[in-house]
Write a structure and sequence with these properties.
The protein has 2 domains: about 130 residues, no CATH class; about 150 residues, no CATH class. About 55% of the residues lie in helices and about 5% in strands. The chain is built from 12 helices and 4 strands, in the order H-H-H-H-H-E-E-H-H-H-E-E-H-H-H-H. A two-stranded antiparallel ribbon has the order 1-2. A two-stranded antiparallel ribbon has the order 3-4. The radius of gyration is 26 Å and the shape is globular.
Length: about 300
């Protein structure tokens, strides 16, 4: 009798321990706000990641203290620098060294006298002084570099995972559309870096870097190489079906419109026109007028004629 009671008690204890262990496992949940790369093995996960390119490349960021000035977003900080230094806008704030970048070295009055920048030792000196990681967000050269390499790395991550992702329906088209998306944004990132910096890094591996700096001309070549890869893929795709589905998922709804103002997403042909316009831009702004050859002008005209136009 005692042995029977002992066996029953043991079974109850084992069952209780098993139940407790199951409950603990149930409580061991994944933080959906901090997903792992495993989510990229699913179609929904990798599409969500691809749609985040706009956020990581242009949106507000919360990163380390050295980059804390990125919280305002690419279009305020980086585009703000470009527009203010081009005298298209005036920036009244001093954050992120706008007080130096936004103001010229000096102003020449009608009587020929020069009025120097009254802030610090002038635009050139102050911007050079702060061109160091130690200055963090006060380094006016940091935001564009950082945003574009964030964007480039996101494309590298997606490219490293997409072939292992499980898709429903037309798997081939979905993978191709995502790869074209990556090569387009890599081309865009290298275009900006190559146009704005004396040298930069060619990084095609996910979450990696290197100390091999290439000239800005080499980076423009790399930009066009990635645009060509996107073009090659897009040339094999047609509008509708899986292609449209992917783009509708990864382009924010409020940005889904055509050049004529109607709602929609780019067709493969329209996307190729954007690529040609970017290649025309890369040639035009990265070649001095004195260095332009007849071949260059012919290339430029070809890219422009096959690029984006009014209503197309």
């Amino acid at each position: 009798m005692k042995l029977k009671i002992f066996k029953i008690s043991t079974l109850v204890l084992i069952s209780s321990l098993f139940a407790v262990s199951c409950n603990k496992a149930d409580l061991d949940v994944t933080n959906l706000n901090n997903p792992s790369y495993s989510v990229l093995s699913s179609e929904s996960g990798i599409l969500a990641f691809a749609s985040g390119f706009y956020k990581i490349g242009f949106g507000d960021q919360t990163v380390g203290s050295l980059d804390d000035g990125l919280g305002f977003g690419f279009h305020i900080i980086v585009q703000g620098f470009h527009e203010s230094m081009g005298d298209n806008i005036y920036v009244p704030w001093g954050n992120n060294s706008f007080k130096f970048a936004d103001n010229p070295q000096s102003v020449k009055l009608d009587n020929g006298s020069l009025v120097p920048n009254p802030i610090g030792q002038g635009q050139i000196f102050e911007l050079k002084l702060r061109n160091d990681r130690a200055f963090g967000a006060s380094n006016a050269f940091l935001p564009e570099w950082t945003y574009m390499y964030f964007l480039n790395n996101s494309a590298n991550v997606l490219l490293s995972k997409v072939d292992g992702t499980s898709f429903s329906g037309d798997t081939d088209t979905k993978k191709k559309a995502l790869k074209a998306w990556c090569y387009w944004w890599k081309g865009y990132a290298y275009s900006r870096i190559g146009s704005m910096y004396y040298a930069g890094l060619k990084i095609d591996d996910a979450n990696a870097t290197n100390g091999v700096f290439l000239t800005h001309d080499a980076l423009i070549t790399e930009a066009n190489t990635n645009f060509d890869k996107a073009n090659t893929i897009l040339s094999t795709l047609t509008t509708g079906g899986a292609f449209d589905y992917v783009l509708q998922q990864i382009i924010p709804t409020y940005m889904q419109f055509n050049p004529n103002g109607t709602a929609g997403i780019p067709t493969p042909a329209a996307w190729i026109k954007n690529i040609n316009s970017m290649k025309a831009r890369n040639l035009l702004v990265n070649t001095r007028l004195s260095a332009m050859t007849t071949t260059n002008w012919t290339q430029l005209q070809t890219f422009a004629n096959t690029g984006v136009s009014s209503g197309s």
